[in-house]
Amino acid sequence: MFNTRAFIEKIARHIWVSYWFIPALILLISLLMVPTTLALDRLLADSVEFDFILLIKTQPDSAQALLSTIAGSIIGIAGVSFSITIVAVSFASGAFGPRSIGNFMRDRGNQTCLGVFIGPFLYALLILGAVQSGGEVTTSNQAISEFVPHLSISVSVGLVIICMFSFIYFIHHVPETINIERIIARLGDALKNEVSARFPNLDTERETPSGIDPNWVETVDTEKMVDIKYVAEGYVQAIDMHTLRRLADDNGLLIKIVKRPGAFVTTHSTIMCVYADSECNNTLKKELSACVATGDVRTINQNVEFIADQLIEIIARALSPGVNDPFSAIACLNWLQVGMLAFAETDEGDKKESVGRLYAAPLQFDEFVTAIFEKAIPYIWSDENVTRHTRMILSFIEKEMESDTHIKAISKALKKLDSRTHID
């Protein structure tokens, strides 16, 4: 069951956003560069004059000393950079919440810098082993001819220069990555982008098969629907809509998805309900269950609520008595405002949630607003300035709304905010 598209996409996404992927890729490139540059050195040894730029002819002892210095210096820089990264991660975890670590670890600048520091170290180390001093004798009593890979050494020196610029960038970049305003802005951008691609993101252009009522969810006999349980515990990270649609078409099923990405499921949780003309056997149940991939943590994939929760967590910490930082809370509210406006622009309240034989209820605007303010208002109440700013934001959004459903959702949040007349 673990060869399903949902599981494969989950693993591929995990690898792509992991901290080690880009450094490992740069290491691989460094490994491939070694035989390439050494081959060029042997090919051009007698036909190139090494008297320009970095291509300076040198003796084996000097070359070994130079490469040893390069390798030692680069690994020292890598160690310092790794220490700085750990300190920054610890600070971000304590100041902004443990869920913010993922945003820092996914930062491409940090990943690339670590790879740039480790890759040249490995390259210089391997080139160092290729340097040969003339006159040495092997176990077969054959003398080794002198070989100094001048081109490869020059490449090592060039890589050191790149490392120095990368280190300068790294020192500048790390403080930026833990700047609270930038963290909030990145979360706000992610919220805006994910809103437009939120689950279920069905292919509405797909035609409904003949004989299938587009409103079958309202007319089908729910007592005849079979509950599909999940086989493990964890948070839903991805749902393979493509495979579910194929299974429904091939087996004449009507599938209603019950759990959205981000929900926590157990072996007793119903993840979808299936209506079938014939018996839904165990093999088919396992295939349907395998279309859902879970993990130990929530992710932003198909889960716009998780991004909003991260902003709310920053609000909670910012307004705690030990921190008392209303300006960070206000910044979070500003970006939540952006997310709500983007949600309203892309929301189609009268659209059908089913396409053909597949039904998945999307997150509605009123649910989104309620999910934000039911969690945030208890913390917002603790500061008068933040409360006033929240009221101003909600009033502005209410004026911008055109749909009655959207206006009601914002009005409900305003009433919740105003339900306490006294600010402690």
Can you describe this structure?
There is one protein chain. By secondary structure, the protein is an alpha+beta fold. Among the domains are: 164 residues, no CATH class; 114 residues. Helix content is 60%, strand content 9%. It contains 15 helices and ten strands. The strands form three sheets. The protein has a five-stranded mixed beta sheet with strand order 3-7-5-10-9, covered by helices on one side. Strands 6-4-8 form a three-stranded antiparallel beta sheet, with helices on one face. A hairpin with a 2-residue loop joins strand 9 and strand 10. Helix 2 runs parallel beside helix 5 and helix 7 runs parallel beside helix 12. The longest helix has 37 residues. The two termini are 54 Å apart.
- Give average pLDDT, whole number: 82
How many distinct beta strands?
10
Low-confidence stretches: none
Which structural class matches the secondary elements? alpha+beta
Euclidean distance between termini CA atoms: 54 Å
State the oligomer: single chain
Sum up the overall morphology in one term. flat
Query: Helical stretch count?
Result: 15
